[in-house]
Automatic annotation (TrEMBL):
Family: Belongs to the enoyl-CoA hydratase/isomerase family.
InterPro entries: ClpP/crotonase-like_dom_sf (IPR029045), Enoyl-CoA_hyd/isom_CS (IPR018376), Enoyl-CoA_hydra/iso (IPR001753)
Protein name per the record: Enoyl-CoA hydratase-related protein
Taxonomic source organism: Actinomadura chokoriensis
CDD domains, alphabetized: crotonase-like
Length: 229
């Protein structure tokens, strides 16, 4: 249900359950966490791509599996349903998105640094329409990406956001023709992987770590990261 492919310095992680539009059950979530962890600890991997098989990114958590008790009961301190979303990845992550990107799948895409979406993609927290709360940080990351008012419009209506609107909102980094999201993401990942890693990782960490810091401390943190041996 999780398939991995190596493309030079880029690790491709595929959600491969197309018969369920790549909806994630408990074993698949654990396999996703393991695949990401393996990529993070491999010194030769410089970037990670997440995508889905069969023309969809991820329809969210598998509701049938949840009803059957397949997911462990979520807790404040335990792992989230998607396993990886409560801390930034150790390496740049690009989501290549075709078709459905809903619920926990949307939250997984928000976890990525960059999102390449085809014009057929749709986004949203449809889980809220089923009475299922956000547990993979959508309510934190979405406002930081698009602003509070726009985030609340998406969250409080639980509506589907088409790809072109997502691009306008700044939710999507690159918009491509249907079927081309992965190809474009691979080219983008190659460009990321080709950069000198020290300066790249310092810049990325500074951006990710600034949110909890006062401005003057964020300036100092940028310098600390940039000048670290």
């Amino acid at each position: 249900m999780i398939r991995t492919e190596r493309h030079g310095p880029v690790q491709l992680i595929v959600l491969d359950r197309p018969e369920r539009r790549n909806a994630v059950d408990g074993p698949m979530a654990r396999a996703l966490g393991e695949a990401v962890g393996t990529a993070e600890h491999d010194a030769e991997i410089r970037a990670i791509i997440l995508t889905g098989a069969g023309g969809a990114f991820c329809a969210g958590n598998d509701l049938k599996a949840m009803a059957a008790g397949d997911f462990p009961m979520p807790t404040v301190d335990g792992p989230p349903p998607m396993q990886v979303t409560r801390k930034p990845a150790a390496k740049p992550v690009i989501a290549a998105i075709e078709g459905y990107c809903f619920g926990g799948g949307f939250e997984l895409a928000l976890w990525a640094d960059l999102r390449v979406a085809s014009a057929s993609a749709e986004f949203g927290t449809l889980n809220l329409a089923h009475g299922l709360p956000c547990l993979d940080a959508a309510t934190v990351r979405l406002p930081r990406l698009v602003g509070q008012a726009r985030a609340l419009d998406i969250l409080l209506t639980a509506r589907r956001v088409p790809a072109r609107e997502a691009l306008t909102l700044g939710l999507v980094s690159h918009l491509v023709e249907p079927g081309q999201a992965l190809e474009h993401a691979l080219a983008l990942a190659d460009a990321v992987a080709a950069l000198p890693p020290g300066a790249l990782h310092a810049a990325r960490r500074s951006v990710l770590e600034q949110w909890s810091l006062p401005e003057d401390e964020a300036f100092r943190n940028e310098a600390r990261l940039a000048l670290r041996p």
